[in-house]
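Hi team,

Below is the intake form for Glycolate oxidase iron-sulfur subunit from Couchioplanes caeruleus subsp. caeruleus. Please confirm the fields before the structure is written into the shared record.

FORM ID: S-0412
PROTEIN: Glycolate oxidase iron-sulfur subunit
ORGANISM: Couchioplanes caeruleus subsp. caeruleus
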Amino acid sequence: MAGTPAFDDDRPPSAAVAGDCVHCGFCLTTCPTYALWGEEADSPRGRIYLIQAGLDGEPMSASMVRHVDRCLGCMACVTACPSGVRYDRLIEDTRAQVERRFDRTPRQRALRAAIFALFPYPRRLRLLRGPLRAYQASGLRRLAARTGLMERLGPTLATLESLAPRLRTVPRPPRLVPAVGARRAVVGVLTGCVQSAFFPEVNSATIRILAAEGCEVVVPPAQGCCGALSVHNGRRAEAQRFARRIVDTFARAGVDHVVVNAAGCGSAMKEYADLLRDDPAYAAPAAAFAARVRDLSQLLVELGPVATRYPLPVTVAYHDACHLAHAQGIRAQPRELLAGIPELTVREIADPEICCGSAGVWNVLHPEPAAELGERKARNVLATGARLLVTANPGCLMQVAAAVRRLGGEVATAHTAQVLDASLRGLDPAALGAQPPRSSR
Ligand code: SF4
Ligand code: SF4
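The structure came back. Fields below:
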């Protein structure tokens, strides 16, 4: 053994957690990178071996970093593991070490710098809306698709272009929305970065549902990013800065619950106690904050329905976002909400535990394998015959919609909140873009 050990003393991955792995391999079949490449080093067990080698004093090699980077952080392995190995903690701590200690290539550094100068900043993302709408309206998008121009400019740019959703204009949410009928709770809503810039209609639907179900809704302005992208990519100090601001913002709002409609954000916010555990000023407020965080579906099921559901005759395929199902254990609640809508049918998607390849910014950092995973998911979605794909994460919506387009398929996409909102407002499925089957058109 030679060279500087992989990990320093600033929160190295836990040897005890790594030691919990009994190398049984039950996690392998749920791991998307193992499914893609079939390499032990690209499986959860293989990555734990690599982390253990680092803990044993091996240096941080380029090969180790490559296999760590290739992990989507989807947490399917955490769900699958019978020994309860907290792989999520291991990979998060390992990534923070990699980001501080590994000398990436100038190209990798530049790409990461660009990503993290843009995505965690809702105002900067909103500035992109105008040019993006002009590009989409001009027909240039169709031209670029026909000529393969984007692919020639590079897979990263092609991925970003293909992911961009059709942008809708909705008014900014009001800061306070009163409950309809008797007030049952006061809730704050996280508006998010990508969600507020590219899917403002999801936030509008979320607010309407909460109010209809008896919640007074507080929407603090200028919330900033929750830090999910940063913490999931090893940028811990940046994530901690974002988290402190969110904790302060919602403490001032004086709410019973903080409602989140983006799976990745919710999973990160529920872990604030761990993220800020070494900060004497924030450890206790962060723990109190985390206990108040609820996914939208989780809170609605806890409260129970009071608003009238009108029929919404449509067949939907429900996709479990990894950071909802694996990281938060929330699978039943969204299905319960959908099942409560008259005339709506839910179909399950094959291989539900395998990630769609979005995984925060993984699809931007690894465009080719992400496209492969996206198309695998899209084929399974199309095989259900559903007219509408429903999920609870903006990244999954963009990723699967782009893959469906590439395959020439036809299925609309919507957030769970939009589906429930459509039912509460008595809208037609066409309002969600869901077309009737070709045979009945
Ligand atoms: S992480 Fe869990 S499931 Fe995977 S090999 Fe280790 S003990 Fe087995
Ligand atoms: S988090 Fe996902 S990609 Fe990473 S090792 Fe686990 S299952 Fe594989």
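SUMMARY LINE: Residues 30-33, 44, 47, 71-77, 87 surround iron/sulfur cluster (ligand 2) (CB under 6 Å).

Thanks, M.
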